[in-house]
Structure formats: structure tokens, C-alpha cells
User: Fold these one by one.
Assistant:
Number 1:
Amino acid sequence: MENPCIICVAITGSLPTKANNPAVPITVAEQVDSTQEAFEAGATIFHAHVRNDDETPSADPEKFARLKEGLEKHCPGMVIQFSTGGRSGAGKTRGGMLSLAPDMASLSVGSNNFPTRVYENPPELVDWLASEMLEYGIKPEVEAFDLSHVLKAAEMHKKGQIKDTPYVQFVMGVKNAMPADREVFDFYIKTVKRLFGEDTPWCAAGIGAQQVVLNEWAISSGGHARTGLEDNVRLDRDRLAPSNAALVRRAAELCEKYKRPVATWQQAREILGVPLRTA
């Protein structure tokens, strides 16, 4: 039976700059162009951050609005996912763009260490972000940097704070957080299936050199994969990635290796339970 693999592309993030890789898209126009190329290469979820002109992270709803408009025009059907991550702002500013009603939004349900700081996700903010997603019909993608985050998502689902079947993404390879450990990865999968059901879709993301490792683990294990310049700016030790699309194509090659078709946007929406919004 076919098991299509959804490829999510995280094109910009909050940290990489053009000094790290000239292909990192910063302006809204660059982001739309980069995403369109990635969409054509097989990505069907777009994970969105926006930046200021000086490349610093932003949570400006106006920038998110222009980005969403451009993507709906040039990447019709693609699942648009806004980031509510903590590098772009503090407190409720992190969710100030949710009223734009994207298809999905990232939701970090607990705190953890990052390389030089604590990634703070206090319970009251997590509850508020989840409530905003419910109000605007947005499907959360639970970003699990720790096993406890999967358990917290299950608690929130039971309480009705997360509607329908949760979609959990395992994030591995962040310094001071969860490393890329295969036994832990396999236990994540086991835990998601135990808590939410055998057929629950899940995703994995690896940071830096671990990106391709997690892509292969996820694709070969029946999950979905995230790639893109937010998480990794290189093809290998000696070569910068020339584009987000190049990283998407690498993930698509792994899908072919493991005999999994790359999901179309229609299949991605069906798997995730995210219908196409109508005006």
C-alpha cells in the first residue's frame, strides 16, 4: 500500500543569514520565490518565519500577511504553517499573526535548553497559543524537543486544547536539547502510536548535519520529513546548499530509495486533516 511522504520545507528560520549562505531568503519576495521552487520540487508544507530588513527575526503580522498572500498565489494548495517560535518575539507577540488563519502553526508545548539560552514556553502562553489556534481553525504542529512534550500534547488533546488527531514533530540535534539518538527516536514513534493511535501521522526534523540523518530515519520508518535552510545551510561538509529546493530534492531522493511517493498537496491535506480553505 502506498504511504506518501509529506515534505515540509522550513525556508528561513530566525538564525541563518546570507553570511551563512547567500541562498537564505530574507525578504518576502525572496521567500515566495524560494518556496515556489521548493513546492515544485515536492514540498507541500511551508514553515514560515519572517525577517526585518536587517535580517533580524520579526513577528510582524503585516509581513506574514504579505507572505501568505504571495504563497496562495504562487503555490496554490500548499499547506501554510506559521511559526510561533520564541526567537521572533516575546509573550503573545509570538501569536499575533494567528488571526490571519494559516492552515497550520507550530506549537512548542514545553521549555528546553537551546545552545545559548532557555527556550521558554510557559504553560500560560502555551495555553493561549493553543486557544488562538482553536479559534481560527488552525492545526497545530507540536514541536517536540523532549519526550515530555509528546506527553504534554497528549494531555492537551485529552482536554480538547488540541483538536482532532495531533501532528507531532520530533526535533533532534539542537545543542543542549535532544541529540539525534536512534533509540530515542524509535521510542518517540512508539509513544506517539501508543498515545494517539497506530495510524497517527508524525514528522521529524534534524538540525545541521543531522538533517539528512533524520530525513532518512523518518522516511524509512513511515513518517514525514522536514528539510530546509532554517535547520541546515549545507549539502555536506564542503558544499553550501544552493537553495531550499535542493534540500527538498535530497529528501525526495530518499523517498524514492525507500519506495515512498512524495505526497502531493492534496494527499498532504488529506493525511493531516487540513482542508483547503475557501474564500
Number 2:
Amino acid sequence: MPATQIKDPVHGYVELPDALVEGVVDTRPFQRLRYVRQLSATHLVYPGANHTRFEHSLGVYHLGRTVFENLRQQSYFTRDATVDELEEIQRTLECACLLHDVGHPPFSHLSEGFLDEGVLRERVAETGLVDAFDRAGVGGAPLRSANPHELLGCVIIVEAYGDALRAFDVDPFEVCAYVLGYSLAYERGEPWQYGVGAQLLHSPIDVDRLDYITRDNEMTGAGVLSFDVERMVDAYTAHPEEGLALSEKALSTIGNYLEGRIALYMWVTQHHKSVYANRLLQAMLGEYESVTGESPVTVGGILDRELDDNAVLERLHVAAREHPDSTLASMYDRFRGRRFPATCWKHRIALADRVGGDLDGGSGEDGEEGGNSEGGRGPDLDEFTAWLTEGDDRLERLLADALDVPVHEVWIDRSYVPAYDPDELEDIPIAYGGTTRSVGDWGLYGDRAFDVPIPFVFVPDGMKRRAIRVLREAFDREVGAASET
């Protein structure tokens, strides 16, 4: 079968059948992904982070195809499944891997909240996908819990690629189900290998995560990830009852993979400047809506006008120019000039030092730069960070009043990418001796207070100490007084 090779900086040559290139890759909806950055505004911190959902999708396709072909070499996996069934699963998986992110709005996750959920779910219902899930006995739970970009992707898959997929002898509804973590064929009673196909794209060890973790580390230049990708790819296995897992081959590299996932989250996605850059961009989208009365990102805009990062940035530029005295104009100037204030602390060690808490979460002695000017023991850090996160809007207003600055110059925030949450690492399954247990059960997952995600507090330069003092006093009043009663 004629094929096209595309050189990828992470995986080397990615080979695709020409029919798949013509029917999927070289089409306008898929090419739009070239202009949707994988890490939103993180390139303002790591200049090399200009990689997009386009090359990520190619990478997921490459890994998905490679892993499934390896599985097909395992006699245990192919038992009780015909060649035609395995071919069908592989075709579906390859198409789903390519198209899994086709619905991402501009700036990836940042603008998902601006998509009208009612309009989106109405478009999903029109595709017939709801009925397809009902006929398979799955019900509506997968669609109700799906992210907006996944739902929008399903609409595009059915409406824009339905004919092409059917020409490949692939069911577009099954592709959508894979994107959401299900196999309709498996739910209808087909062999268990159909379910494994879906797990390869949507599970704790899916190839989506494997690509973006590797790619984000490589393209940012962060260099916090060092593990043997090829050995891990070779370690995938599966079981009729347990589903997808990693064999003991992965033991030599899984530790590095776990450490790398945590490190990438902490020092790239959770980097204090990355958090600020992305929060600022998201706030600009909200201000655009306030100033113009229009949402910067709409379902119709993506489906009909192919909205991407560049188009929305131009909208922000025009609106800021036309409303020079607006908060949007101030934010836009800050964004384009990269005038980012420092956070009151950059990591958990500094947080413990400045508020006087103990690194492990319990109370400890106040550090010399701590906000507890009266000395004594500081707050429980876990309680303090939970209090900050849960009351961020109210505390932002409190800080702005205390510091006498506009509220949009005070932000309390943490990473916008929950998919990186290190807690998920405990669920990675390792198969050994006929059983499957999570890495947490095997003791391969460490619990280190140093890498616990924390909320950051951004205030204008020169106001950090004062801001910390205001927050400590408010915490003592609200939480300390409550614990004493």
C-alpha cells in the first residue's frame, strides 16, 4: 500500500498510508491543528514550546499503531480473535488516534469554557451518536462526562470525516467511542480485544499521554524526562479480564516515567510563569467577551470558520486597539510585552518558608521570610493551600482592596491542565505472574511533599510581603478561629 513518510522530531519517521493522508491529514479540519498550540501560552516561558496538536496527533497515531502491531505478535492477545477482527480494531484505532484532538478549540484547554454547552450537545445529538451509544447499551454517561473538545471532536469526526471513515471500512461512531474511552463493538459483545483498542487511546497508560509527555519534554527543552520509550512501547500487554497493562519489561523504565511525569507537571505546566501566562490569556478571552458582547470562541466558529490561535489573537489585538482604556487593553499590553509579575512563592519549599508551615503539610516553625511576623508555628500547608484554592475569587478581591490595586492585577491560580495530575500515576497497571496490580500497590509510586501542586499568588512587584501578611491574617481569622471553637 503506497505510504507517505513525515519526519517527526520526537519519533523519527511516521509512516501513513496515502489514503489516510488524503482522507484525513490533508483536510482543512485536521490542518487547522497546525495552528493550535499544544501548551497554549507556555511558549512565553519555554520559547521552544511551539509544538501543536497537529504533530501530537501524528505522534499518537504512530505510537498507537506500533503498540497494537506489537500486541498482535503476542499469541495470547490474538487468541479467540480473527484476523479480520484484529484488522478492524487496528483501522479504527489508527483513525481514532489521528482524530482524537480534532475538536480542540484555540489555545487547547484554555478556551473550552467559552464553548456553549447547549449548542455543543445539540450538535452531538444531531450526529446520531447518542442513539448509537444507547443501542450498544452504554447509555449517555460517556457523553455527559466528556470534555467540550472531545464532544466537538465527535461532531467533526461524524460530519466531516464520516464518509472517508466508512470508505476505510471504519465506523465513525466507533471512532468517537474510542475518543471517549469506549468500544461500542465490545459493549455489543464482540471480543475483548475491541475494548483494548479503546484503552490504548483512553486509559492511565494510553498512547495519548505517552506522546504528549515525551513531546512536551522534548519541545520545551525542559530535559526533566529520561526514560526508554521504545522499551515501554514493547512492554504493553493485555488480558481478557484486566485489559491493557504493562508487562514486567517496563519495570526498568517505569520509575523514570513516573518521575518524569511529575517533573514535567511541576516544572513546565505548573511553572509559576506558565501558570501566569495561561491565566492571563484566559482572562483576556473573558475580557474580550465583556468588551464586545461576543464569545471569542464558538462551536460554529470552529466548525464553519476554522478558528485557531492566530485568528483569536487577531481578535484580541483589534478589540484592545478599539478599546484602549479597557482592562482588555491593559492585559493585552502586558501579554505582548511579557510583563509578568512574580508570584509570592515559586514552589512548595518557598511557600512553607514564607507562611511558616511545614513542608509535609503539618504545622512547623516560621521561616525567617515567613508571613507570620508574630513568630510561632505556621499553618498546616494543606489546609492553607485548600483555603486559597477554594476561596480564590473572594481572596483576590480581599488582596486587591488591601493592596489598593485593580482586582485584575491580583490572581490566585494553579495549573490549568488537570490531565497532568500526578495522582493518576497510582493507577498505572503492571502485569506479573498472571495478575495485574497498580504501581501504587507495587510501591513504585512515591509520595513526596516537594512535588505537590500548589496555588500561586500573583501581585504587583514590591507587594509580595504585604500580600503574604494579609493572607496569613485572613487565614488565621477564618480557619484558625474555626479550629479553636
